[in-house]
Amino acid sequence: MAKTNGGIVVFVCNWIPAIGADNAANVEATYPPTTTVLSVACTGRLTPGILLSAFEAGAEGVLVVGCAPEECHYVSGSLRCGDVIEETRELLSLVGIEPGLLGFELLSDVDGGAFAETVSRFAAEVDKVRQQIAGERA
């Protein structure tokens, strides 16, 4: 993964969430400009190594946005991704990264506003976690 300039890396399923990301521009919905959106065939294909590499490349937070389970084109991709997220959070703890900096959301709508709101809400949570970490170090 290429070096990021901080910000949020968002992995989106190529189906509903990716369409929502595209539609965000159509409805002029905004989310933090330091967000990098990466489309994957299915979030169920992600691995802890891929998610950890985003942090290694400099991401402040990583969000995975999959399809609602009943809308998954690969039947159980979103459910599998949930397991990968939990495994990755455990690994983050082991390497000294706050597990709350990894988010996981499921969308059932291609609404661009909903996508932008999801990303913005996660970015605010990342800011809160980062401030808390900074406060603990001070």
Mean pLDDT rating = 93
- CATH level 1 name: Alpha Beta
Q: What is the tally of beta strands? A: 4
Instruction: Give me the CATH fold name.
Output: Rossmann fold
Total helical segments: 4
The parts where pLDDT drops under 50 for at least 5 residues are none
Helical proportion, percent range: 40-55%
- In total, the number of domains comes to 1
Structure in words:
The protein has 138 residues and is of the alpha/beta class. It has a single domain, classed as Rossmann fold. The chain has four helices and four strands; from the N terminus they run βαβαβαβα. The longest helix is centred in the last third of the chain and has 26 residues, at 112-137. The termini are far apart.
Ordered list of secondary-structure elements with their pairings:
Layout: E1 8-13, H1 16-26, E2 36-40, H2 48-56, E3 61-67, H3 77-94, E4 102-107, H4 112-137
Parallel strand pairs: 1-2, 1-3, 3-4
List its salient traits.
about 140 residues; alpha/beta; Rossmann fold; 4-stranded parallel β-sheet; 4 helices; globular
